[in-house]
Amino acid sequence: MTIHPISNYPHPPLSSLHLQYLDQPLATLPTPTLVLDRAIVRRNSAAMLAVCAALGVGFRAHVKSHKTLELARMQVGESGPAHFVTSTLIEAESLLPFVLECVGRGRACSILYGVPIPQSSIPRLLHLASKLPAYSLSILVDNLAAYSAFQSSLPASSPKIGVYIKIDTGYHRAGISTSSPKFPFLIEAVVEKSGESFKGFYSHFGHSYAGSSEEDAASGLIEELKVLDIATEAVPSSFRGELVLTVGATPTSTAAQNMLSSNSPRVGEFKAVLERIQKKHKNIGLRLLVEVTSVYDEREKPEALISAGSLALGREPCKSYPGWGVVTGDLGNKDQIVYDDRGAKTGWIVGRISQEHGILTWEGPRDQFKPLAIGDKLMVWPNHACVAGVSMGWYLIVDSDQGGDKIVDVWVRWRGW
């Protein structure tokens, strides 16, 4: 039986969404809703491609946070390679039409399923791989038993699937440590059984999010590279292929901007461009529109209730400040001080959350705060964009290059696993 899980998650008609939202002012929208600034997203995507070009490395775009075709296209640009990593198979399946379009245009492209694959998902994986050119789809392995089970499930005429070994560089979520006694046996088995299908090593330095500075992020990136370098030394001499080393979480990817010698004229020019971009534009493209539903000015710290909790904001507080989100200077907060964890630490933040509601708390001197009123609509930068989108069926798109105050498009998110 051919499995088509995408059909279990039909998208709402775009025509209906456009009728509801296009040209609507932000202040009239229902809450909570996620708003993406297309202009900022476009600039961020171009900047990441420029970083990789300046460093002379490849780029693989992760789609797990946004789960949209429109943003995936922006991430890889209009030309050059189009490589992706996904966290669910339905993301990979949803990328298939675009990847085939890229193949037809002669672009190098691939999809990496970025977590060790569940055995029950192998039939879907094989079906997807059969639609793609050889080695356009790759998997991660970190366990010899799981890899052997995967190999034994492959039919004689199996499509050619690439294999990366997931290395644990300290996060201890998934991956195998290079110091593990099982590591040499896993590499030997992958090289022996996969041959040219063995593509290299993959690391996700997820604990870099706990860092507090650019120096911490840079140290994390260096540590990732050192550990993967050790991994390459364990590859049997019989392997003749080219190894790909894949690294990067958000902090360490950002740190990569500074990884080349500052004496290089090319890097100096690149840093100057980045600094100019950063001074000119805010680079956070996602905001959550919320509404004030009650106010509590009489409390020790002034507080207000908003129509968004953990299901809309995510579960993680931030290490650098005591909250789940920061109220921006948009909409009804234009004359308000925006909380700066490195500055005066004054302004409204999301200080507590429940499942469906959050509590805004005023941080800083009481005599500086601007009271909020019931019905006020505010924009919030959430800590964790990946989780903030999970409960949303779509993003409402604005474009700050076109004013940024009205909806110009709707991007539907992929759903399911």
From TrEMBL:
It comes from the Eukaryota. It catalyses: D-serine = pyruvate + NH4(+). GO terms for biological process: D-serine catabolic process; response to toxic substance. Gene3D superfamilies: Alanine racemase, D-serine dehydratase-like domain. Pfam families: Ala_racemase_N, D-ser_dehydrat. SMART domains: D-ser_dehydrat. Its EC number is 4.3.1.18. Its cofactor is Zn(2+); pyridoxal 5'-phosphate. GO terms for molecular function: D-serine ammonia-lyase activity; metal ion binding. Residues 285-399 form the D-serine dehydratase-like domain. Belongs to the DSD1 family. Catalyzes the conversion of D-serine to pyruvate and ammonia. May play a role in D-serine detoxification. PANTHER family: D-SERINE DEHYDRATASE (PTHR28004:SF2), ZGC:162816-RELATED (PTHR28004). This is D-serine dehydratase.
